Structures are given as structure tokens and as C-alpha cells.
Amino acid sequence: MKTAGWSTRRVAGQVDRSECAVRNCWEQWTREGTHAWKNGSGATRKTTRKEDRRIMRQALVDLTVTRSTIRADVGVAIVPQTISRHLAEANLKSKRPFRALPLTPEHRQLRLQWGQARSMLNVTDWQNFVFSDES
What we know:
Elements: H1 8-15, H2 19-32, H3 49-61, H4 67-74, H5 80-89, H6 105-117, H7 123-126
Helix pairs in contact: 1-2, 4-5
């Protein structure tokens, strides 16, 4: 696109990248004739692909497993954030149980109607109702 005369801003908008990234890529291309990543850029990996698969498998098999348990089972000196990042890359996110089921607007409306219909009941009328917290 740059060789066709496009501006850096137009190329950046087309490929959905920042102008700085496009400019750096173009400068590397004109300087070195390549746009490949340089060897050694970024942090070195602490886990192998096999260990990554083991992390994913443990998270899928036991939904209640913790990051520290996974770290101990894998046997690699990694921080819990690394495990979270690996799980997030595989679209596995932590799931916490609901304290209560979320109510839809329809449920809220039905509850309100039920309460309004019984708002004029006295104590003796309420003694005829049985309330339970069971599902």
C-alpha cells in the first residue's frame, strides 16, 4: 500500500493498526527489505507447549481448580498471572457461582405484581402462606 503511494494514516486505517506501527514496519522494510519479527524480541517463554496443554486440560477437567494448584501440578516456576493469561488465550475465564440467579425484567415485573396484589393482606392472611428457600 505504501509502494502504491498510500499515506501512513490511510494504511493504518485499512489494516486497523496504529500509524506508529505502520511507520515502523515501513521503515524496517525500506532499511532491511523485510518485515519479519526480529529474533529475541519479547520475553522468553517459561512453559513449553506440552505444559500449556496440561494447564488447559486441568482447567477443563476440574472447574474448581485454582491457579496455585495448577502451578504445583505443572511443576514449572511461573506466576499465577501466567496461568491466567494462558487460560484467557484459550478463551477459558474464571467462573464464580451466582449468589442468586439474575432476574430478567419479566421476572421482576411478575414479582412486583405478586407483591402488589397481596399488599393489603393482614397478619392472619399471611399465616396461610408457606415460604421456603428451596429451589
